[in-house]
Amino acid sequence: MPARNDVTFRSAKPREKPFKLSDGGGLFLLVQPNATNLWRLAYRYDGKQKLLALGHYPVTSLTDARIKRDAAKKLLSDGIDPSIERKSERRTAQMSRRNTFKAVADELMVKFVAEKDAPATLKKKQWLLDFGIAEFGNRPIAEIKAPEILDALRKIEKRGRHETATRVRSTVGAVFRYAIATGRAERDPSADLRGALITPTVTHRATIVDPGALDI
Prior knowledge:
Elements: H1 6-10, E1 19-24, E2 27-31, E3 37-45, E4 48-57, H2 62-77, H3 82-98, H4 101-114, H5 119-136, H6 146-157, H7 162-181
Antiparallel strand pairs: 1-2, 2-3, 3-4
């Protein structure tokens, strides 16, 4: 069947029962009674008839549906089932979302809660983690390098908060060590920053020689 033009699909009216409008090469639009129109690709793999969902029309245009059809056909020509490939891509995407810095940091906070850290301690740890999350929270943790962490810490130092920068480095390191323990990173790049930050100034207070002089 020759390919149709977009007007045919755009003007399709729902009927009492679902029906198909074919475009060629196994691609067709499934027009449903509720006016939800779905692109589908019919194909055979390993001797079995199968269907692949290619999106909603018109959100997925005719041109886009054809591109997806051709990509699926390429997979088939390489001996790959496009449905299996789709599932594999979804699993990879799900794993990627679980492997972001923020995802690992959130898990670590759950661990801290389970360990019954004091509320004030939990609040402080979350505050320190938020600096890293703001900079690279959605990045896969295994891809984050030492220079990126240093750049984030430099921003804190520029505000004169040297002790905060040091504590953030330590807290970010805890996230990486947890990622290593859970198989989502191989090393802690924050360890490479030892000596790279400005050492916080320690304020020494006078020694109390007469405790009785304290107003308590």
